[in-house]
């Protein structure tokens, strides 16, 4: 069996939106009040929240470098699915209903997603012929169909002039994206992040995503401790403490490396992790927020840093793949909210993103995630590939906003340290500590470990994001490569209606 010498992430291609050239530091400030627009639903449902899209350009670049088929061939199944449709399930209907007020504010969106004023019923077929035509156009003309020409002009026009229902109370502030912004989008290739954990090589996504660094730093901290399923509470306490420190450093130092001097090597060094580990009491929870670490490794911290409010949404998708030759891909993609900006491009069948809300809402000249023209906002995407002696061992990733980081970290700890099988590691209840005074946890986690973690001073609160009542953390898609190439594909058994994990054996 032929194997790749290194994972594809050795030269990762971050799919990340950019801020338009005309964006200003006060873009998220309501001129009528002088205060930031309320995040939801006002700011997320707007033209100013839309970033210059990067997915299509990234797909094309990845196919050019690693693919064996052309873009038109790859898009064929998606074109067919959009035309034929799919059966509506509870998840699709409920997520649409969660955004009913936003979707109803934009007539083009309401026409597609709220026919007759209601979300499609469970069991009916949802078809999107306009999207099928758009994808067919892209298959025929390539990425230029999106980034140049008539479609680019339509996208820019919607951003600059949101099609809001006159009766809506949403302000829907306009954005500044132009056709020049779309034509100027460039794919940036970066080296993957890398740490060694228990003799395994862990590769992750580079900035402006914070996932690779945050997961790597936390693993380096845990490297100093023997973790065992025989004392799960002690292991989980250390997991929560390591995560809090990774998030403190994420907020203090991470942003787009084209604009910010991100100290990647320092943050992923074992010596830095050791300086962070010295702030952890193995028997007691820290008073949080904890300090961001001193980059010179001196002492046990600097000024306290509280992670800004989590504005990343759970509505993301992750795909993990291993082929028969042992090559691997971990891919996380998102348009931010469920429904993105809530604005459909008329007659085109797709929603525009609201990715720019990943920037800090209030401009601060010292904030590494401040708004700037052409800048990529910070994300938490954490597609991860783990190698064992040069061969792919694990492929892991998840949606979930900032909880992506803790989801990937907890799955790796469950599998590598706590003796769980991969399906058990994915199904296990989760908690997400993001440098706050309390830890968001699934109800099942609180039931299983709340009493055991109470003596450590860990305060658990039921999870649930600011957009829906969902109490679930993450929705992972994972693969393990075992002896003789045996593949174990493990997706969520329950979360978000259950995921898909399978091994495909093509017909001879």
Helix content: 25-40%
Weakly predicted, low-confidence segments: 1-11, 302-307
- Count of helical regions: 17
Q: Can you summarize the main beta sheet?
A: 6 strands, antiparallel
- CATH class of the largest domain, named Mainly Alpha
From the helix content, strand content and strand pairing, which structural class follows? Answer: alpha+beta
Overall geometric form: globular
The counted number of beta strands is 15
Domain count? 2
> Taking strands numbered 1, 2, ... along the chain, how are they ordered across the largest sheet?
5-6-9-10-14-15
Examine the coordinates and then state which fold CATH places here, giving the name of the CATH topology of the largest domain.
Serum Albumin, Chain A, Domain 1
Radius of gyration: 22 Å
In percent, how much strand structure appears in the residues?
5-15%
What is the terminal separation in angstroms? Answer: 17 Å
Question: What can you see in these coordinates?
Answer:
With 508 residues, the protein is an alpha+beta fold. It has two domains: 8-187, no CATH class; 190-311 and 379-496, Serum Albumin, Chain A, Domain 1 (Orthogonal Bundle). The chain is built from 17 helices and 15 strands. The chain has helices at residues 39-43, 55-66, 71-84, 90-98, 100-104, 107-113, 129-141, 144-147, 150-160, 179-183, 211-222, 232-253, 264-267, 270-277, 403-416, 422-427, 443-453; strands spanning 11-12, 86-87, 125-126, 190-191, 193-197, 200-204, 316-322, 328-334, 384-388, 391-397, 431-432, 439-441, 460-462, 477-481, 487-491. Strands 5-6-9-10-14-15 form a six-stranded antiparallel beta sheet. A hairpin with a 5-residue loop joins β14 (477-481) and β15 (487-491). The chain is globular, with a radius of gyration of 22 Å. The model is unreliable at 1-11 and 302-307 (pLDDT under 50).
């Amino acid at each position: 069996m032929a194997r790749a010498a290194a994972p594809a992430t050795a030269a990762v291609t971050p799919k990340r939106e950019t801020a338009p050239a005309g964006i200003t530091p006060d873009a998220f400030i309501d001129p009528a009040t002088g205060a930031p627009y309320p995040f939801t639903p006002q700011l997320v449902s707007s033209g100013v929240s839309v970033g210059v899209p990067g997915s299509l350009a990234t797909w094309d670049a990845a196919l050019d470098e690693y693919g064996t088929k052309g873009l038109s061939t790859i898009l064929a199944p998606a074109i067919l699915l959009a035309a034929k449709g799919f059966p509506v399930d509870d998840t699709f209907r409920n997520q649409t209903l969660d955004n009913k007020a936003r979707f109803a504010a934009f007539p083009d969106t309401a026409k597609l997603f709220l026919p007759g004023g209601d979300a499609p019923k469970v069991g009916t077929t949802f078809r999107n012929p306009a999207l099928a035509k758009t994808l067919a156009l892209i298959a025929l003309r390539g990425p230029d169909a999106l980034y140049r020409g008539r479609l680019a002009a339509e996208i820019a026009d919607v951003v600059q002039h949101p099609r809001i229902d006159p009766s809506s109370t949403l302000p829907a502030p306009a954005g500044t994206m132009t056709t020049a912004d779309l034509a100027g989008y460039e794919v940036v290739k970066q080296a993957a992040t890398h740490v060694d954990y228990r003799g395994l090589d862990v590769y992750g996504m580079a900035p402006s995503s914070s996932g690779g660094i945050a997961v790597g730093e936390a693993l380096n901290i845990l490297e100093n401790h023997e973790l065992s399923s025989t004392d799960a509470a002690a292991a989980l306490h250390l997991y929560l403490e390591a995560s809090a420190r990774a998030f403190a450093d994420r907020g203090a130092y991470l942003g787009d490396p084209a604009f910010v001097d991100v100290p990647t090597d320092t943050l992923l060094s074992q010596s830095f992790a050791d300086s962070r580990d010295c702030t952890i009491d193995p028997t007691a929870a820290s008073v949080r927020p904890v300090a961001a670490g001193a980059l010179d490794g001196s002492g046990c911290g600097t000024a306290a840093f509280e992670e800004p409010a989590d504005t990343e949404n759970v509505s993301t998708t992750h795909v993990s793949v291993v082929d028969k030759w042992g090559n691997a891909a971990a891919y996380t993609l998102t348009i931010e909210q469920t429904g993105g900006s809530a604005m459909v491009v008329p007659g085109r069948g797709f929603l525009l993103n609201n990715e720019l809300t990943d920037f800090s809402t209030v401009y601060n000249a010292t904030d590494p995630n401040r708004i700037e023209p052409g800048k990529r906002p910070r994300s938490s995407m954490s597609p991860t590939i783990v190698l064992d002696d040069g061969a792919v061992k694990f492929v892991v990733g998840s949606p979930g906003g900032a909880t992506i980081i803790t989801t990937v970290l907890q799955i790796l700890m469950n599998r590598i340290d706590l003796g769980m099988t991969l399906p058990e590691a994915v199904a296990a209840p989760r908690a997400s500590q993001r440098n706050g005074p309390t830890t968001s946890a699934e109800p099942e986690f609180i039931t299983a470990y709340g009493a055991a973690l109470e003596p450590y001073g860990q305060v658990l609160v039921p999870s649930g994001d600011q957009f829906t009542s969902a109490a679930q953390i993450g929705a992972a898609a994972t693969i393990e490569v075992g002896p003789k190439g045996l593949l174990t594909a493990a997706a969520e058994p329950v979360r978000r209606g259950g995921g898909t994990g399978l091994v495909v054996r093509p017909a001879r």
